[in-house]
Amino acid sequence: QVQLVESGGGLVQAGGSLRLSCATSVSIFSINTMGWYRQAPGNQRELVATTTLVGSTNYADSVKGRFTISRDIAKNTVHLQMNSLKPEDTAVYYCNAKTVARPGMDYWGKGTLVTVSS
Predict the structure, then answer these.
(1) Residue 24 confidence (pLDDT)
(2) What pairing do the DSSP bridges indicate for beta strands 112-117 and 10-13?
(3) Looking at the predicted structure, is the pLDDT value of residue 111 above 90?
(4) Is 73 helix (H, G, I), strand (E, B) or coil?
(5) What's the burial of 70, exposed, middle or buried (CB within 10 Å: 0-12/13-18/19+)?
(6) Which of 4, 40, 69, 82 is the most buried (most CB within 10 A)?
(7) Based on the number of CB atoms within 10 Å of its own CB, is 98 exposed (0-12), middle (13-18) or buried (19 or more)?
(8) Taking Cα atoms as reference points, which of 94, 90, 91 lies closest to residue 34?
(9) pLDDT digits (tens, 9 = 90+) for 35-82
């Protein structure tokens, strides 16, 4: 069982920055893909960014150039650096993991709220 714990959400003004973190309960080397998704009120959950075990990354078009996903191998943690935040980035952000052993299984954190004021 993989447990994911997010932190770093909060309230920020438009143009500001936040850094989200997702700590895993297992070695990060056992996780093939880790990513961040978000869900705004009334909307479906959408992909924000992902990173794989070999270091490749993928970003939603809406966050390219503003958000950066990275892995801290020593701390089994994935970060999402969010810069130039916009009100439309307001959402609950969820950490997601897919393990090497069970690639068809999605593990989710409980989410952390990011609110961007205009």
Answers:
(1) 94
(2) parallel
(3) yes
(4) helix
(5) middle
(6) 82
(7) buried
(8) 94
(9) 999 999 999 999 999 999 898 999 999 999 999 999 998 889 999 999
Listed in sequence order, the residues at least 6 apart from 61 whose beta carbon sits closer than 8 Å to its beta carbon are none
Cross-strand partners of 68 = 81
* Residue listed under structure tokens 């943690």: 77
Instruction: For residue 113, name the pLDDT band (cuts at 50, 70, 90).
Output: very high
Q: Which amino acid is at 35?
A: G
Q: Encoding tokens for residue 115?
A: 């609110």
Question: pLDDT tens digits, residue range 1-11?
Answer: 899 999 999 99
Question: What's phi and psi for 85, nearest 5 deg?
Answer: -65, 145
Three-state secondary-structure class, residue 18: strand
* Residue 18, beta-bridge partner list: 82
Using DSSP's 3-state secondary structure scheme, residue 40 falls into coil
